[in-house]
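Design job #97: recover the sequence.
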């Protein structure tokens, strides 16, 4: 199973980014898909989660600004991030679990700074 994130970068406060997570070796439509982030010196935390039936959960601080979605045909998960704040700066990781294990991508850096 391989997860490859992309779309990170440097953005000014108030800006937007869309992260993508291309998945191979497991079927996105059958799994819970999630985005986590880890800021320097902090623990990794759940940002958003999307179940296979379409329900979603968000970290309180990103509600109304971030949206998780998936394209089952492309086996890809997205995280649309709007109104970004400096405190959103972190490495963002894609995660999924299937009956055989838990899988992580390599992460993509998001830096929000003026």
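Job complete. Output follows.
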């Amino acid at each position: 199973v391989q997860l490859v994130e992309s779309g990170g970068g440097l953005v000014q406060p108030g800006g937007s980014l869309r992260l993508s997570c291309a998945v191979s070796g497991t079927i996105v439509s059958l799994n819970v898909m999630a985005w986590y982030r880890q800021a320097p010196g902090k623990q990794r935390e759940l940002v958003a989660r999307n179940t296979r039936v379409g329900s979603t959960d968000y970290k309180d601080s990103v509600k109304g600004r971030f949206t998780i979605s998936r394209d089952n045909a492309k086996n890809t998960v997205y995280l649309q991030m709007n109104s970004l704040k400096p405190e959103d700066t972190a490495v963002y990781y894609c995660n999924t679990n299937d009956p055989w294990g838990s899988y992580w991508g390599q992460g993509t850096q998001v830096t929000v700074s003026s």
